Amino acid sequence: DAGVTQSPTHLIKTRGQQVTLRCSPKSGHDTVSWYQQALGQGPQFIFQYYEEEERQRGNFPDRFSGHQFPNYSSELNVNALLLGDSALYLCASSTGGASYEQYFGPGTRLTVT
Amino acid sequence: GEDVEQSLFLSVREGDSSVINCTYTDSSSTYLYWYKQEPGAGLQLLTYIFSNMDMKQDQRLTVLLNKKDKHLSLRIADTQTGDSAIYFCACNTGFQKLVFGTGTRLLVSP
Q: Do residues A88 and A37 lie in contact, with contact meaning Cβ atoms separated by under 8 Å?
């Protein structure tokens, strides 16, 4: 049973560019949450997708957007990249019902130069 | 807003018990979690506790919750060098949105 997978593993972008990160949830899970983890910090909640809709959003600007597909996989898009967007981006999956277990993927390390 | 605080660093000897502490501000948190992160890796769910419980034991791990003081702890018995990692406390603030602490780096020396 595959766990949560994310691609790519590492990414280097230039300021002002746009980036798309991808996540496939654990088998049987229908909810995907995205988190940003800056170096030396705990993860910060970006947003959550359930039934292809954004259900919750953290304190992140509109440059951060997402999408969930019918197969429950998800994308995180970041426009107009800033140096401060450099971080580990983590995807977590869970079920939208009564399950409170969230499982995280290995993350995508984004470096903005 | 919600806030979760942890001490930054803990050093123990192999075979000793480790106790990692966490305090939180959101009294409406229904579930509280402990995650482990090894260098360059994602987060591994270790255990979690429902807010109406005081204690949960899972093999070498014991979680204690003092809801009155909003204090959560993780005890690791017989700590091994493989337990060296960063440990995050997190609170569920609704619809499975997690608020994390800054993490406690555990160093286990032989």
A: yes
B90: chain A residues, CB-CB within 8 Å? 42
Query: In this complex, do A42 and B43 lie within 8 Å of one another by their Cβ atoms?
Result: no
Contacting residues for B41 by C-beta, under 8 A, at least 6 apart: A106, A107
Residue B5 near residue B66, CB atoms below 8 Å: no
Q: How far apart are CA A35 and CA A22, in angstroms?
A: 13
pLDDT (tens digit per residue) in A72-112: 999 999 999 999 999 999 999 998 765 678 899 999 999 99
Residue of A nearest to B36 (CA): A104
User: What are residue B74's phi and psi, to 5 degrees?
Assistant: -125, 120
Q: Which residues in chain B land under pLDDT 70?
A: 1, 94
Q: Is A30 in a helix, a strand, or coil?
A: coil
Among partner residues A55, A104, A107, which is closest to B95 by beta-carbon distance? A55
